[in-house]
Structures
1.
Amino acid sequence: MDTLSAILFATIVAGTPLIIVALGQLIAEKSGVLNLGAEGMMAMGAIAGFAITHHSGSPWLGVLAGMAAGALMSFLFAIVVLTLMGNQVATGLALSILGVGLSAFIGKPYESEILPTIGPIRIPLLADIPIIGDPLFNQQALVYLSWLLFAAIAWFLYRSRPGLVLRALGESPTSAHSIGYPVIRIRYLATLFGGAMAGVGGAFLSVFYTPLWVEGMVAGRGWIAIALVVFATWRPLRVIVGAYLFGGVMVAQLFVQGSGLGVNIPSQFLSALPYLATIIVLVIISRDQNTVRLNAPVSLGQPYRPEA
Amino acid sequence: MLRLERRPEASHLMSYASPLIAIGLMLVGGLLLFTLLGKNPLEGFKVFFINPISDWYGVSELLLKATPLMLIAVGLAVGFRANVWNIGAEGQLIVGGITASAVALYFQESEGVHVLILMVLAGGLGGMLWAAIPAFLKTRFNTNEILVSLMLVYVAQLLVSWLVHGPMMDPDGFNFPQSRMFEDSALLPLLSEGNRLNLAFIFALAALLVGYVFMYRSFTGFQMQVAGFAKNAARYAGFSAKRMVWIGLLSGGAMAGLAGMAEVAGPMGQITEHVSSNYGFAAIIVAFVARLNPVGIFFASLLMALLYLGGEQAQQYMNLPSSISNVFQGMLLLFLLGSDVFINYRLRWKEAVA
């Protein structure tokens, strides 16, 4: 692989967990639920995925375990904010603190373990295209799955009836309720889906990407995914574009330092780039008040209780 | 079946009882956790909650740990009351620690009280500077302060990592990522011999008092309270939303920066990569458990400090990872937010309507 292909390859791999997590959050947010616990759910997904893969030897069981762990965490969140009408911002934050702490706690015995590296899956013919062949078609299975997820979600939201209901509910839960849709139940499902995807994203990090477990390895990716949904103005295609953009920023560090360009930038400055980039894109997208206001689901973050 | 029914008016009793319910639920959660780990829960509770404060030295350590939590939580509460969500106190603490350390290292040769005074100012200003970024972006570009202040936590962590590996590294320190030890003139005076409790604890008590007066006795504090309860009412009354964002974020930043100063000039006596032990996040929990009330913050800080010390003890005597503290802290906040429902609702047994 030449340098350009290698950069593209790494960018796509780095962007993949962001796509999976952000698309999950997108569904939850479309229903009106803002779950700031993505960081904690990812951390739990990462340790569950790592532990199960380590014991079973099957990375796919690991991904399933990650999915279950994320969903379980989001279920806790859903009980507090949907059934008990707790403050969504504070509850999401509590979930992040709990998830990061609990994952560190559970993960202690696994800190020195390493999983076998999982090779890419090569798609014949397409992978032979110069430059983009390898990055796009000789990839980890979850990269392909993230594209399928995107297609499924885009179709669901804009081409299916349940998707329409979900969007309507996020705009006006009162109207959705009055024409007979079970608002709380649908929000539960959307929140659980968001949690499950956050878990998968976490498991991707610990099982496929690194593949090891270190406390704090999610390193803000959950928060970046939440920012990404805002940046994408709640549109799936823009989530993909944004995720690869961030993936590119994340891998820039490796290539600048390995490039032998003679630049001597402290590694910490390069590591700070994804966080600074997040702030910059948030500024760009929020600069015009209407961009966010017109695109955000109207009921986002608001508690709702159907008054029977 | 059991159903939630809206109370005619919010229950005063429940708003005080719900933190206690949450603490009770947290203990039940701890019981389950210890049992799952195959430890004797009673012994676990003793190690976690009793042993750390079984002597005076333990109590002084408790107050020492509670100090940064009180400082930060009271600063954050000012903003939270007006729905200004500063989630980045952890970063503001680190930057306050950095700026205070810069002063300490610059005045290495000098004696006198001016060093400490300058460190206090530098710490507070450093934290304010870091908090001013989300405040500016929020008021100028309408950027979400939660995400910006949080991203800046990671940036601050990288910043301090770079500094202690580079410009601030102790030249005679065998390349350890830490600064020189500070001179005595750059250390906060101890309150008594034989333990590590220092002047910062008095600062924290003063901050609680000032916070109380500001929140309950000043017009601006009242305005911020109104804005928190009813945004539109505050707007119609002509209260400036931007001013509240600035006050909310800067007060949290100043207090977090001061807490950072108190760490480097107190128990640490130097700056390392580990300026904070998650105090910035724990203080958010403190603020909520305390219902954003300074008196409550005093007690909630003690509880949270006990969870820290308990975690250390559990690591030492029960061979459990110290992150068990974070598990307890997260559970506490989650349970609190859940049981808050009973402030406005009550459980009623109702026949299912056919």
2.
Amino acid sequence: MSASMRTCPTTGLRVDKTAENFIKIHAVVATVALLIGGVSALLVMLTRWQAIHLLDVVWFYRLLTVHGMNMLIFFIIFFEMAVLYFASAVLLNSRVPAPKVGWVGFALMLVGTLMVEWMMFSGQADVLFTSYVPLRAEPPFYLGVILFAVGTLTVVGHYFGIIVVAKREKTYTGSVPLVTFGATTAAIIAAVTLLHGALVYIPTWLWSMGYMEIDPQFYRLIWWGLGHSSQQINVAAMVSIWYMLAAFTVGGVVLNEKISRVAFVLYIMFISMASAHHLLVDPGMGPAWKIWNTSYFMYMAVFASMIHGFTVPAGIEMGQRLRGVTQGVFGWLRRAPWGDPGFSSLVFSLTIFGFVGGITGVTFGTEQINIIAHNTLRIPGHFHSTVVAGTALAFMGATYYVIPLIFRREVAFFKLAKIQPYLFAFGMLIFSIAMTFAGTFGVPRRHWDITFAGAPFQVEFSPTVDLVIGVMAVGGLIGILGGAIYIVITVVSVFFGKRLPEGESGLGAHGRGLPLGIIAPPRALTPEDDGEDLEKHALGTTPGTMILVIVFLAAFITYYFVNWKLLSIVWKIG
Amino acid sequence: MYHSGLEAPQGIWWKPVHGSEKVWATIAFAWCLVLFAMMPFWHLRGGQNPSGIRHRVDPVAFRTRVTEFIEEYKVGTDNQIPVVEPPPGSHIYLQGAMWSWTPVLRLKQGAEYILHLSSVDVNHGFSLYPLNINFQVVPGYDYGLRITPHEAGEFQIVCNEFCGIGHHLMVGKVVVVPSDDEQAAGTTVDTAAAAVATEGGSR
């Protein structure tokens, strides 16, 4: 065992080389998928921007399919598998048992990915990400998705194996760290999600070969058990990364393990019903079913996110205050390491996910408000602020720590890395707000030509729409530039980056291309730091965070009721 | 002593919650209850609900029903698409197919109709412009929605569910004529009677 482990000189963490290899290979494939998804994003966006209208109709829908599959499935899930290996083997100091299982899982995922890519690019699967039957792709497309899902399930099983081995071999004492706990909820949700995937794609594959019939409404129901729940893998993984980055960058603490862990468990318990809010204006289900399921038992998953949205910044604030950064209500934010790309990514990811993604998502996912949101640009506007500005940005921030800690190299072009999260977050913020706004005019999503040239009747969108789409495109270009910089930094760092000396590759390493949290990790807390005087502020122990969440709630309430007002003025319908 | 999320907590971590966490969790939970309550509330008091009269329907039978409906109330054509003017209070039918909405509907302002939506091939999306009213149109399902157009004018139906290469060509039309008859404005659908009348009239 000792030959396959290296010991991190500063933290004393033993890092299993097999785990490192798994993290590396999944991260590399994730980045390639991000590149493919990013190039298609650029081309698709330049087509939706009617002033340019770049692609022809066939390639628009083809690359939109490519964009969806690469971003929402391949990039994110490969990256999440890397996160799982990190959260288990690395954080628990464990070895990786049965590496062959991991390799088989990875190989299945890769083969599935390649099949799907081939089918999409060769024009045999122009069915978009959702592939709603009876739109039909050629059978190998569905088979590729099935292989990918089976491979992912295998890796998830491997993750559980590592946890069991770590526990049995007592590689850690006490309970698993919160980050590992969160990653485990992501893994459990992944298992549930992938079973939905099997449940829907195996019959669909058989249907595509003519062996059985599938009800289109049944397909939509079960498909969203995959399609939406997979976004909850992202949420659980992203929140875990928030806690991780908070710890690395400013020594963020866990205010209360109970609260944070219960919130993670709520994700598992209530998320599979979230599928319902894609079907709110569908004919197959009645109002009771819709209300019951969208409210995910009174919005318990929303409740969980609102808890994390408090505990993560409050943990940062508390970590700062305990280390003596106590000036005023917001001194902990002002004196935070804004030049550390891990920290800026964390803050922007959390803020945009909550303020834009969370508020719009809950609002559009309300049974009746969905009437004025369904399938308009409001929907992709919402999920670009959750999955892109939220999840993808958190993953980017994590990468700046994975490069020195796992790949043991300096981050290339570190000055660019410092501004990369700002560019990406700012661009995606503009992009998703503009997109959402365009949707309020009724501009449809997934649409090649909103001038409707050649259609029997003219649809004249207000000139404001052109302006808003133009703003969206500018935001998108800035975001894509930020994404491109990320890819260049990652690829150059991983393959050509300056190697860190063998004895000096963990926390506390020196080098110009390292984030502050690596060079000067936050001081470890001692029992003397437990400041009882912190309790005395009128707004509690974390007054800054309290003010921020109250601003958030006010924004939420305002947006929510403005939408009820917008709904109330359309025709009576029901 | 506090620790980070990367460290394994030692001993029992099921500990009392901070005051501020308790306050926020309570506020958040109360807000979630409001979110929940608004949906049933709107069913009772609001004018816009996606409930509808929902049935399974064979796509061929739906196409036949639409054809009968057109024959019964046709008043002309618009861009080769039949225009129908059904009486206020009746069941009206709109068929989504690759890549057209049939027929063009002429409705009376202020009158109530039951609009039946379905598709005869793949999923389509009913999106009424510029009002931004959106419903999913699923083959094999009849979505019957009571609608009351309260303003006159021309409205377009955009397809907002991807349905193949001609998706962007799929634009339909609804014309709402100003109400010249106060009685029509007050008409509502007697579901049972109207259903019997239309069924009887068409068979």
